[in-house]
């Protein structure tokens, strides 16, 4: 996974 | 988005709404830990700061706003509007024992040493233990109103469903976030004892009371 991923989870 | 994630979010929303409605309808927050609710407000505040930096979807943004608004509304009802009914004498868990270690850990173990990422990590760690003041309060008084147990059930179910969601995402999307998963496992484990009581007592129509 990418480190600075977009956080799509709540 | 998979079905476990969606039902997890909805379960979380149900828990939040149940608690708000319970307090509003009975005009009382008896049996509710204001400290846990303060911690959840802190969790949402520190986690959803990305509302200002990135847009993911309308669903994502609206759910975040609803969670934050509801958690602040709950804190307002407990500490302001229905303060007279707040059972502070039984809400004696020392939150600094949670916030300080969790704060330290989020500085030490995170994905990236940047302010937003550390705050996000802090919120993930804090959420996993934020229910402890509430569980402590129930163990102290030895009982909980049935509506409060429904709240706790949906709150625990939410993280359990997220665990299945993460297994799903690992297999089908290659997605894996160790920090979220470990904290999620801890959080779910904290509810296991309660789940047992909920199934064996509350679902059979009995009030949740603990042996003296």
Automatic annotation (TrEMBL), chain B:
GO terms for biological process: protein retention in ER lumen; protein transport; vesicle-mediated transport. The keyword Transmembrane helix applies. It holds the Pfam family ER_lumen_recept. The chain crosses the membrane at residues 65-82, 119-139, 151-172, 178-199. It is found in: Cytoplasmic vesicle, COPI-coated vesicle membrane; Endoplasmic reticulum membrane; Golgi apparatus membrane. Keywords: Cytoplasmic vesicle, Endoplasmic reticulum, ER-Golgi transport, Membrane, Protein transport, Receptor, Transmembrane, Transmembrane helix, Transport. Its main location: membrane. This is ER lumen protein-retaining receptor. It comes from Chelydra serpentina (Snapping turtle). The keyword Transmembrane helix applies. Belongs to the ERD2 family. GO terms for molecular function: ER retention sequence binding. One of its GO terms (cellular component) is Golgi membrane. It is a multi-pass membrane protein.
């Amino acid at each position: 996974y990418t480190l600075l991923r977009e956080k799509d989870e709540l | 988005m998979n079905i476990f994630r969606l039902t997890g979010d909805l379960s979380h929303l149900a828990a939040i709404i149940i608690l708000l409605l319970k307090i509003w309808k009975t005009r009382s927050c008896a049996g509710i830990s204001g400290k846990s609710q303060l911690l959840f407000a802190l969790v949402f505040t520190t986690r959803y700061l990305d509302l200002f930096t990135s847009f993911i979807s309308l669903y994502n943004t609206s759910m975040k706003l609803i969670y934050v608004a509801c958690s602040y509304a709950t804190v307002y009802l407990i500490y302001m509007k229905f303060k007279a009914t707040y059972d502070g004498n039984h809400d004696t868990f020392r939150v600094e024992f949670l916030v300080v270690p969790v704060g330290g850990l989020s500085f030490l173990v995170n994905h990236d040493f940047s302010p937003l990422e550390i705050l996000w990590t802090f919120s993930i760690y804090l959420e996993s233990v934020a229910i402890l003041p509430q569980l402590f309060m129930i163990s102290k008084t030895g009982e909980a109103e049935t509506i409060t147990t429904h709240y706790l059930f949906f709150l625990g179910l939410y993280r359990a469903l997220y665990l299945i969601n993460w297994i799903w995402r690992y297999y089908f999307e290659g997605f894996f976030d160790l920090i979220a998963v470990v904290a999620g496992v801890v959080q779910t484990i904290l509810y296991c004892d309660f789940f047992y009581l909920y199934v064996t007592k509350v679902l059979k129509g009995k009030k949740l009371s603990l042996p003296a």
